[in-house]
Amino acid sequence: MTEQKKTTAVHAAETVRKIRHFSRAMHDKANQAKEEGRPVAYCMGGCAYHEILLAMDVTSVYTEHYGGVCAAYRAAEPFLIRAEADGYSNNLCGYCRNIIGFDIVRQELGHMPPNVPDGGIPAPDIMLSCSAGCDLRYKWYQAMGRFWDIPCFSYDVMQIPPFDADLADFKPHVIKYQIEQFERLIEFLEKLLDKKMDWDRLSFLVNRGNESLFTWWSAYQLRKHHPGPMPSEDHFSAIVPAVFDLASRETLSFYRELLGELQFKVNHNKGVLDDEKYRLLWAGGLPPWHTMAIINYFETFGAVFVMEASDYGPWPEFEIPKGMTHSLEILAERTWNQRVEYWDDALNNGCGHSRVQRILNRIEEYDVDGLMMHMTRSCRYQSLGQIHFNNLVQKHVKIPIMFMESDIVDLRDYNEAETMKRVDSFMETVDAFKRSGGRKHAN
């Protein structure tokens, strides 16, 4: 339909436009900590250790996040190529290849690679991985041990239970195991840093982290409004504080401001588009950080991605059980609730899959006209099973779907002309489907 020139997305929410500064400030803090001799850790999203690290005065650098930043600036390709030259497959996670290549180049140069986003990230003093989500997480930092002779620690984060499990019986064992894993991490840090955990400080940080998450969730409930006040291109920026800096006061301030802005828009009936014709759901896959402007292209048809069903949150509020006061218990309870989101609905409604149930629920809650799934070449965790998920969705509700093929970091896997043709065809289908009465539920 039209040519696509811009690479970064145009944000609709004023609050979200501050994220670039927020992200840069995170990396500035890490570089300053390194200069001052304070411990810096390479970290991974989903590890549930935000508050623990902050309470121990460890500054975090989230390597997946920096991979996304490099992709957004289209600065990743030299690092991807360098990692591949060292034997790493181009099917390996783009975040992983980007950081491995970045650190190989840094080692070879003996200094920070030139012209990198945010001036680069500091060399780590510790590497902290976990089992959450991706299958490469244990090996990624272990592989980097060949050029970082520093302590590396890995631990387990609970995964979703099987659907034939009895949650009432299953939960106590999982919570106990998760607490033990947090205790292992704290013991490791105490010994390494020669300091003890400040439990009062940890309790304060956990409470603030929970408040940030609950505020984030409340803000996103406002996106059910017609017209939608915030699109998915904003969401994929708005995740940064919660996913990579949860326990900070800046994060809580950000989500309070976002909640206030979205409430104002809802109160004054202000949407992303003046004439919202179609409401879409980002139903799976991580975003193409190198080409986020493609989401804006949907808006030229009057379509807004009003919500997401990806694994980047937010997560529903949960009630802390009465009498639960220990910080590690609360952290484990929070992790449990995030992992079993929609588990009961999936079982009771007969869908049989919590991720698909999340899609089904959000189709109804956000009044969705069509779905889009991003099949990311180098992310098996987010892409594996997408066709199966769609088949399950269509058993419950007939609704148009588009599959976009690309990658999270590697621009070489993206064909702009082909993608835009797919969008053109998809939007014709959505329009025809809506004119014929819209989504149709199975009997």
Percent of residues in helices comes to 40-55%
Taking Cα atoms only, what radius of gyration do you get, to the nearest Å? Answer: 22 Å
- In quaternary terms, these chains amount to single chain
Overall tally of domains: 1
Topology order in helix (H) and strand (E) letters: HEHEHHHEHEHHHHEHEHHHEHHEEHE
Overall shape: it is: globular
What's the total helix number? 17
| Number of β-strand runs | 10
The portion of residues forming beta strands comes to 5-15%
Q: Note the gap between the termini.
A: 38 Å
Arithmetic mean pLDDT: 93
Q: List unreliable stretches of 5+ residues.
A: 1-5
Strand-pairing-aware structural class: alpha/beta
**What is the topology, as strand order, of the major beta sheet?**
2-1-3-4
Largest sheet: 4 strands, parallel
Provide a descriptive summary of the structure in words.
The chain is of the alpha/beta class and 443 residues long. It has one domain (16-441). Helices cover 50% and strands 11% of the residues. It has helices at 19-35, 50-55, 63-72, 77-85, 94-109, 137-144, 167-193, 199-221, 232-244, 249-267, 293-299, 327-339, 343-348, 354-365, 380-383, 386-396, 416-435; strands spanning 40-43, 59-62, 126-130, 152-155, 278-284, 303-308, 370-376, 397-398, 401-406, 440-441. Strands 2-1-3-4 form a 4-stranded parallel sheet, with helices on both faces. Helix 11 links the parallel strand 5 (278-284) and strand 6 (303-308). The two termini are 38 Å apart. Mean pLDDT is 93; it is low at 1-5.
